[in-house]
Write a structure and sequence with these properties.
It is a single chain. The protein is of the alpha/beta class. The protein is built from twelve helices and 14 strands. The strands form three sheets. It has a ten-stranded mixed β-sheet, covered by helices on one side. The chain has a two-stranded parallel ribbon with strand order 1-2. The protein has a two-stranded antiparallel ribbon with strand order 7-8. Helix 1 packs across helix 2, helix 5 crosses helix 6 and helix 11 runs parallel beside helix 12. The chain is elongated and about 70 Å long. It binds S-adenosyl-L-homocysteine and iron/sulfur cluster. The site of iron/sulfur cluster has 10 residues, from helix 4.
């Protein structure tokens, strides 16, 4: 790995207000001898007005801003690069305070503007088809580093507005569940994006799937399935050796879904590995009785990949079997491939 550690910009003596949850922010305000309504104003300016610094909070008097700036600050990820693809997809590379790097992707689709955010720098899960997996885990992101991707992207693209959030960028969200749950509280509660418009995707960490509804707001769940037998799934997704299909589906069946909601099953189609008509038929059987929809993602290749992308005809045949089996099955358009922004292509310049 190339070492590109940035100069550390933290100010240890000062409190990063972004690192505080709402109750912690209230305690901070109280401990600073300020009335509680200041906490509400801070929340508004940080999460809705996207203030970059305490000096930006013009609702506060100059004196108050100076007083607060003496003991606190607001961190922001640094925009290192912004790539725009021909189809309108954009990829942002952000540098964090300790020099780690993460990517997030903005995907315009008709009236939607979806932001795909990262939950970890790198990923420890080691799925063989995923470029992020090849990096290994650098570290978990803090809650504010997850939520800050939304704030930073919103600033960059204003006046356009982000309508949907997917946790499908770098990392396995359920391997960082505490920080992810707090970030989701901020995104839905403080930034006021409806949980219906937020989707968390997991490779299938079963105990954390059970924990999620107790810890986080009721966002949508997506499961990266990618195989219909334990043998194939074991070989492409090491997590399956710990949490095989039987356990994964038991957790999915018991998942407390909100009315009219479904679990999304993502299925990366790998040429000659999991793309046969038999696989499609098994998928129909596996999903029986689960309110579900399937997102088919033809493999997005990258340099040195050990898998191939099935041709369009094969993908359509696979979809047909699912549709005949009364499943909802969409083929995900691979957006932003030429800027390495499509599923599984995020490596934040680490390679
Ligand atoms: N770690 C979580 C969140 C990341 S989402 C998870 O795996 O669900 C990334 C999605 O992209 C997953 O559904 C994964 O199966 C898919 N993916 C990974 N590599 C891919 C590739 N090369 N081509 C297409 N999809 C890929
Ligand atoms: Fe991690 Fe998801 Fe990539 Fe697997 S697919 S390595 S879990 S980011």
């Amino acid at each position: 790995m190339k070492s590109r550690k940035a100069v550390v910009t933290t100010m240890p003596s000062k409190t990063n207000l972004k690192s505080l949850s709402k109750p912690e922010l209230e305690s901070f305000v109280k401990d600073s001898g300020l009335p509680l309504f200041r906490a509400k104003q801070l929340v508004h300016w940080i999460y809705e007005r996207h203030a970059l610094s305490i000096a930006d909070i013009t609702e506060f008097s100059k004196d108050l801003r100076e007083k607060l700036s003496g003991k606190a600050y607001l961190s922001s990820p640094e925009l290192v690069s912004r790539l725009v693809s021909e189809d309108g997809t954009e990829k942002f590379l952000f540098g964090l305070e300790d020099g780690e790097r993460i990517e997030c992707v903005l995907i315009p689709d008709e009236e939607r503007l979806t932001l795909c955010i990262s939950s970890q720098a790198g990923c420890a899960m080691g799925c063989r088809f995923c470029l992020t997996g090849r990096l290994g885990l650098k570290r978990n992101l803090f809650a504010h580093e997850i939520a800050d991707q939304v704030i930073a992207a919103a600033r960059i693209i204003a006046p356009r507005r982000i309508t949907n959030i997917v946790l499908m960028g770098m990392g396995e969200p359920l391997a960082n569940i505490e920080n992810v749950a707090e970030a989701l509280r901020r995104i839905t509660g403080l930034m006021k994006i409806s949980p219906r418009r937020v989707t968390l995707s997991t490779a299938g960490i079963v105990p954390a799937i059970r924990e999620l509804p107790k810890k986080a707001p009721p966002v949508n769940l997506a499961v990266s399935l990618n195989a219909t037998t334990d043998a194939v799934r074991n070989s492409v997704m090491p997590v399956n050796r710990t949490y095989p299909l039987g356990k994964l589906f038991e957790a999915c069946r018991k998942y407390p879904l909100q009315p009219r909601r479904k679990i999304t099953f993502e299925y990366v189609l790998l040429k000659d590995v999991n793309d046969s008509a038999g696989d499609a038929r098994r998928l129909v059987c596996l999903l029986k009785g689960i309110p579900s929809k399937v997102n088919l993602i033809p493999f997005n290749p990258y340099e040195g990949a050990e898998f191939g992308r099935p041709d369009d005809e094969r993908v359509l045949e696979f979809q047909q079997v699912l549709l005949k089996g009364s499943l909802t099955a969409l083929i995900r358009k691979s957006k932003g491939r030429e800027i390495q922004a499509a599923c599984g292509q995020l490596e934040a310049g680490y390679r």
